[in-house]
User: Fold this.
Amino acid sequence: MNNVVIVGSVADNAFVEDIAHHLSQHIDYSDLISLKQFHNSEFCPRFIIDEDNWNNIGRKLEGKQILLVSTSQSDISRNDLAFRNCLIARAAKDNGADKVSLLEPDLYFSAQDRGPREEHGLTAFPRDAADYKKFDGQPFSARLYADMLKVSGIDEVITVHNHSQSVKNIFMDRFSGNFHNLQPADVYAEYMIGSDIVRHDNLVLCAPDKGALPFVREVHAELRNPALPILVIDKERIDERSVCMKVSSHSDISLEEVKGRDVIVIDDMVRTGNTIVKACSMIRGAQPNKIVFLVTHFYTSQEGREKLNSPVIDEIVASNTIPQILNRDMQGRLRRKMVTLRISRWIARHLGQILGSKSHVTKPPYYIEDMSSKNPRFKGYMGPLFSQNN
Assistant:
């Protein structure tokens, strides 16, 4: 991939470094771009291009594809990161880059995927007055973000497990089909089969709401076990913080039949944990053997950690699309039942195909399991000092 230059929007981002490593970029990305900030706080990226060469000024990135990797950071707001993306893309195009691709595993502004009017978003469900009112007075932020990226010079956007039909429609339209929503069903199935987290012969998959069901079915297909049942929960939101739940008529299994079985509840993201804890509480009442919550995007808020520490959840599996989850301090008390799957190998495999070259990561496993020594399933030994502090 000699024509691909991989850079990040912040310095010393381990996720960016992993992607670059798996795609065989041996130069540290911090040596390829300067991410400076002026005294007036304005951000000014600069590609580092042969300082002594005064020829072809402004065109030294011709023939190059720029892959910009942007992930959430604990010390920089998503608003700032979003605008950094725009400025880096503009710097690439203003210096001759042929193509700029953005890898943003947790796509910013996806929660604002529709607006207060009928033409604001094409959803997979009929919108009622309450749904329009929910966005009354707000901007249609997902569409604005797509527009900003496009006008800044981004040609292609790559994300992971975005379940919003409205976001998919917006980005597919703005980028003329060059929008790739990577679905990690295969890597999750690989982990379920290859680890001891659940019993494979007595397993139930659970969709905590209708929105999660399509992805749960994808995981089900990857497990290649037609007899494996899916428990489907219907969720009716009463207000911003309250929901009512019941087992859907489309469920393969009744709540009573969950008794003694291992249940994996699968969703795309968690912020406060309210909905998931309520779903798991309902399942816990049926006396399952174990409840595992598997989530792609994990926001490590104080409220979320407190809620998810509930005994109704035995174990939590999250990917590292939001890298802070790897920080044990951010996990807090959840470290005793937290597992993080580092999936940069899996992402790099797809990037090799998207960017027009075979990935150097060709063999599984496509994940690296990361867990605290306080987790009962931890099998490694990393020394007494690590054990005490971890």
